[in-house]
Amino acid sequence: xxxxxxxxxxxxxxxxxxxxxxxxxxxxxxxxxITYDQINQFAAYGGFPVRYPHWRFGMEYEQLxxxxxxxxxxxxxxxxxxxxxxxxxxxxxxxxxQKLVMAHVYGHCDxxxxxxxxxxxxxxxxxxxxxxxxxxxxxxxxxxxxxxEDFIDKVLSLENLIDRHSPYIQKRTPQKRxxxxxxxxxxxxxxxxxxxxxxxxxxxxEFVDHQKQKAAEESSRLAKFPSEPQRDILxxxxxxxxxxxxQQDIISIIRDEAYYFAPQGMTKIMNEGWASYWHSKMxxxxxxxxxxxxxxxxxxxxxxxxxxxxxxPYKIGIELFRNIEDRWNKGQFGKEWNECDDIRQKLNWDKxxxxxxxxxxxxxxxxxxxxxxxEFLTEDxxxxxxxxxxxxNKRTGQYExxxxxxxxxxxxxxxxxxxxxxxxxxxxxxxxxxxxELLLTHLFEGIEMQPDYMRETLKNxxxxxxxxxxxxxxxxxxxxxxxxxxxxxxxxxxxxxxAQESEAPSDD
Length: 508
What we know:
alpha+beta; six-stranded mixed beta sheet; three-stranded mixed beta sheet; 21 helices
């Protein structure tokens, strides 16, 4: 397949059969053997051989190259979620590393194909990325690289402002009311009469005009745009900001790519844990020779290493899948297990149900990281894997356990996973104070936005919207409104009758 050596091709076929024997179901997977320089290029492009031209890809390539040259990091594998899947092996790796990578890749490919959170993604994204690159190059030729790149910079600062759950929600289109129902609202404002000649006395013209004016004012008040808050800010800007056609197209490109990569962020722990679970099982039981044990252990342990104050999705994912499989094999779940208070009985609990393998396949199909951690992370698992909250002791120069409180640990972890730990922002009103200003709201959950990031994002939003942009948030436990009008940023304390404003100089 592709440019694999005969030995690698032999092992690819063998490992594929082993994976299928375990029940893994993959798209066709095409392996390419490439140099370390090529793999750094592809990694900078998010795994794709072609992306639109932009300086950030060059910056990421430089970082990856320097990191490899100085021995700080090494990319063992890379796989792209498409149909067929594309995976890359690096020239010069040991044969045991290549075997491990192929087993790991097949785990990823099974996850891509079968996890429901990847179902809406474009499986032909390889072609779509090339199409995006072509379109943006045309805009560069037509409008100049500086103009296009400056606009891309602004949009990229907003690429996380999408509604990651919207592809999974089927929204009902509200039915239009019947004409008679619409007209009845106006009629109900007036007193009903059965005699036409009495109408002018019972419903005098002044009364009718006054009621109609009140109804119009109320209708205008209620007709807020958008009618409901919108989390897909990029989509809102694409449809409603005063943009040129090429600018709308660039937003659509970056938005499409953001939605493509979103499920990978939503399932990082599960995806890497699932692939690691299967490469470990296949390598130790079916693939590895005795002479490769040490090399495999070295590579595997390096991938699974986790510092006391760190978080390794590979480690957490594989151990949690193993824990679930063991629990469901022994029947350590359900009402009887949860209500058992006998520690000795729990230690020896084994109903020999053998449901573990079936359970982890079910989880692979239906869950994402948030639901995965929320439902299956247990206090016993945290203790066993030393998942505590640590803090740095300046006196000893070491990280020390700050808390073993399981609810707090779980809450902190779920908070980090929800929306990738980023603030949740939504469009509240596109005609704020009837001035065409864009009002955003920050769904405050205890973590304040970083002021520098917020101010720069406001500037970019204002440049795209073309009118002042406001965001309501909380800073220093005080509700505040930040407004950028194109020249300066105003900070207004909400609820302050003086509406005291402090201005920050603009870089524009």
